[in-house]
Amino acid sequence: MASRLNPYLSFAGDARQAMEFYKSVFGGELKLNTFGESGMAGSPVEDQIMHGQLESPSGYTIMASDTPPGMEHRPGTNVSVSLSGDDGEELRGYWEKLSAEGTVSVPFEKQMWGDEFGACADKFGILWMVNVVQS
C-alpha cells in the first residue's frame, strides 16, 4: 500500500453521525468500529466510534473517532481539510453540501490568485478549504 495523506477527525460522541454525513457528501464505503467491539463492551462509550474510515470513489479517505474518556476534545481547532483539483463541478458540489448548515468564513468565489476558493466550518465544526484550480 502506498503512503497517503488524509485527515483524522475527532468528535465528542457524534462521530457516527459526522461520518454518515461525509458519506452523503462524498459517497463511498464507510466502515465503523465501536469501542464495544474493541474490548469496552458494557462501558458508557461502547456504542461510540473507536475508528471510522470512509473511502470515496474519488480516492478521498477520511478517518475519525470519538474522543475516548480521559482525553480532551477540541473541535475544529486542530485540523483543517483541504479539497483541491480542477474538476469544478465536483468540487462545487462538495462545497454546497459542506457549507450548508455551516459557517462560511471565506465565500466560494474567484480569489486574487486566480482560483475559485472558499473556506467554511461544517455543521460539526470541522474546517474545510475548497479550491478549484483554474487552467
UniProtKB/TrEMBL annotation:
Domain spans labelled PhnB-like: 5-130
Superkingdom field: Bacteria
UniProt-listed InterPro entries: Glyas_Bleomycin-R_OHBP_Dase, PhnB-like
What is this protein called in UniProt? VOC family protein
Per the UniProt record, the source organism is Amycolatopsis oliviviridis
Whichever gene encodes this chain, its name is phnB
